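Board notes (copied after class):
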Amino acid sequence: MATKHEQILQYIDELPVGEKISVRQIAKDMGVSEGTAYRAIKEAENKGYVSTIERVGTIRIERKKKENFEKLTYAEVVNIVDGQVLGGRTGLHKTLNKFVIGAMKIDAMMRYTGAGNLLIVGNRIRAHENALNTGAAVLITGGFDTEEQVKKLANEVELPIISTSYDTFTVATMINRAIYDQLIKKEIVLVEDILTPLDRTIHLKNTDTIEEWHKHNYETGHSRFPVVDSQMKVVGMVTSKDVMGRERSLPIDKLMTKQPMTVNEKTSVASASHMMVWEGIEVLPVVNQSNKLQGIISRQDVLKALQMIGRQPQVGDTIEDIITNQFEEIHSDIKGEVLYRCGVTPQMTNYLGTISYGVFTTIVTEAANRVLRSYKKGDLVVENITIYFIKPVQIDSIIDIKPKVLEVGRKFGKVDVEVFNEGIVVGKAMMMVQLIDR
């Protein structure tokens, strides 16, 4: 039977899009405490089908599909620009497909404005009205208000009209940044994208005997199964090593590995792969916040996902991408050793105008990654990095990075990295990494 928390989540999920939600009302409707209702609403917000907006309240919004992640709802725009909703609150759940900056005459502005757009404009009442009539929402910059008739029209057509104290350029930058951040997040493959769901996951109960393990092993050919209690909470993991040579009548809970390592659906595949390699695990149970089984992932699933990530084109560049894209490979004439060259741009510096510690770490990690790939195809996970010497390197400098492989085996590598500026050593690092075959 579903818990009260799960019942509330299901209740919220079934509410119509645009419905206003309150802790008190949910508590009353579901017969629970306000604390329980509050926790469920917060989880619904984390899952992306509820949004809380200052001075508006909490509303049910459309749950976004992963492939449509770069689209924003008007409710999210309100949060991004710290806006105030002047009218059309019932349309906050709707998704905008593009925004138009109204820095032109009204006739020209309307040629670019259509249904599903967001017009960003100042104190121009006629533009507000025309945009709403074409099916576009309005974001008024500079902290201006609008006329009552425009607010009334916004309520009628169910399109929000929002006011923000920021200027037009700042608002456009903030919205662009939010879309870009979501594009970067879209690229990160999560456990939920690759897991074998619960309805296809073979699991054992802690009251089962070894006989049940043999039965599932014969039917599926698999030898590792999660063990759950009566509430479907993961309490153990059982493998062929555990049951080998044991009486078939023995209970599973007497020999299973208790408190096994688990991951949740929002864990990144990269993090899960690190865990599996580090601990030598073949199968990981996937659980929710209540530790209830949601499915499993295997090492094979993870490696396939890592291969898929490697083949996909980049969409949104992180700071790390900006740094590593500048790497230029240079071969030394004297010893034939590989050198990498990189320029220090403003994005790579701290408030003093010198290269930041985090950027330096990224640079030495990327150099080690590239040099190890010449020895072994695959990915690496940094196990230990020691930066034992670093000097300030100012903006617009050119640095040379010289990685030296000290040791490389089947699963581990050891690399020493030196960084030079104008022939002078400005940084040194030692790295131990785990190597993951593809």
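Comment from the instructor: The chain has a mean pLDDT of 83. The two ends are 42 Å apart (CA to CA).
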